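Subject: Protein record for review, amino acid sequence with backbone structure tokens
Category: Structural biology, sequence-to-fold work with a learned token vocabulary.
Format: Residues in single-letter code; tokens as whole numbers, each standing for a residue.
Body of memo: The sequence and its backbone structure tokens, given next.
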Amino acid sequence: MTPTCGDDPEAELAARAAAERAAIVAKYDLGREKGAQIDPWEDPKFEIYHVTDRYGFIHDHRLPETATALEVKLKEVEVAREKKWLDMLAKWDKIRAGKDKKLTEKFRKRVYKGIPDKLRGKVWAQMLNVATVRQERHGMYEEMKRRARRWSPEVRQIDLDVNRTYRDHIMFRERYGIQQQALFHVLAAYSVYNTELGYCQGMSQIAALLLMYMNEEDAFWALSVLMAGNLYNMHGLFIQGFPKLLRLQLHHEQILKKYLPKLKKHLDRNGIDTTIYTLKWFFQCFLDRVPFTLALRLWDAYLLDGEKVLVTGAYMILKVHRKTLQHLPMEEILEFLQVRLERDFQQDDDSAMLELERCVEELRRGRLDQPAPPPDQELPQRPFGLQLQPPPVRAQSGRRSQMAPSEEKIIGDILRRQQEAQLSAGEVYRGSWYRQDVPSVFQYSEPTTLACYHYQTAPAGRNGIHLPSSRPPPRGIRMTLV
């Protein structure tokens, strides 16, 4: 029953939240049927016949009409591997049992060589044991969808993120299209399935990636395994305080100190903290930070080996590009890691994966291939899919009054490290860029930090105040969410 408003501000807040949630859900129910109201800016036009690549991404320029010799060769190799992978899938029970060591090692080598894209969805579903989980919880997904429609406090934020997730991909291009509907349903259902986590920005791209290769319900259960499975435990990355993110970043710094000390010194001198460039590496397993084809290969390995691929992949990227990075100033380091590598990794995917395997072995010898075991606070504490009482009014509205102490500590640590780096370098020099972190709390999303980049037009005064100019930041450097 919808709360009555009267003079009760809490009831009024709940009523507004319920009305907004119902309006958003109704738009996804209607989809693109007659009567749908879609703003032109939400639904960009595209020319499917000449700008869509084989993975479904839409490009602003006409693609080559003929493939290069290398592309033809790679396609032939992939087709030849498909039969081997079909044979491998037929032996899946033996692979899962792990008793045949020769077969298990063969499977591992083939994963690192790359799963054929035609079979990637089937192999991922097997690696995540989706069919078994789905059967054990038959009917649960539909129940979670129904519950989310009524009570999820995350609906508004999910709607905002769906509208900006892979809009350059044909599956998610159309506002309220079939795949946007599926993405909304998966995220909303998970927000009430895992009541401890709910929803956090960053989960949308993971769910969208799964939807590129699986149907809606399989993608939901795949997401649940990624969040709570022992091999992945991404739950610890997204809950308040981000404890797993901090643990992985600490391990990453240990690797840099031991294996890339010169590069670490250069990054520190330029105020490039690990908290800046590792966020998407660890949150989303390198999506949007390396070319999509390489990201798929890294995800193949991640589903096989879990979180050690995150720390090893981070080391591999810096090791491969260390000479370039050591000669770049601050603003170009950030652009290189956040923008340029996604456009051009400067190595083909096979070479990068071979380097990843070498890095795994190098870190294994140094006993740094695995991060420290997760503490209890990283792991889910509540059973999933609990039937709870309707959430408090403020929770229904998607609002939180203040940041948790753990989140305040993270922001404080970031600021402290930035200040220490700038002090060790002397000052922020004229003609350079510097970073300013501003803690912010929004009405319908979790507290976050706005990372602002300013251009230093004059040396800092005695009081340490830096006055930004109106000159825009370097290409690819924008106000970013941390």
